[in-house]
Amino acid sequence: MLVAIWILTVIHWGSALAGLFAFVHALLQRADAYSAADRKTKPIWMLITGGATLAMVLFYPDPYSPGLIFWVPAAAASMVYLVDVRPKLIEVQRGGSTW
C-alpha cells in the first residue's frame, strides 16, 4: 500500500511539472506560430495548459477520489500540447513548414 501511495505521488507531481512546462512553453512561443502550425491560438493554449496545471496540482490522481474526474482530462490536455502542438510549433519556427 505504501508503494502505491509513492507511485501516485510521483505521478501527481510529475504530471504537474509536465503541465507547468507545457504552460511555460506556450507562453514563450510567438502568437503567429500557432496559426502557421494550424493549431488553436496562443491564448487558448495558455488557458488550456494553465488550467490543466492548476487542476493537476489541486486534485490527486487517487482512483477512489472524486477529483480524478478533473485530473485525467487535465493530464490529457497537457500531454496533447506536449506531443502534438509543441513539436509542430518547433517545426514551424525552425522553418520546416511554409508560412
Automatic annotation (TrEMBL):
Spell out where the chain crosses the membrane.
6-28, 44-61, 67-85
Can you name this protein?
A: DUF2516 family protein
- Please report the organism this UniProt entry assigns to the protein: Amycolatopsis iheyensis
State the Pfam families in the record.
DUF2516
Q: Which UniProt keywords apply?
A: Membrane, Transmembrane, Transmembrane helix
Recite the lineage of the species: Bacteria, Bacillati, Actinomycetota, Actinomycetes, Pseudonocardiales
Cite the InterPro entries for this sequence: DUF2516 (IPR019662)
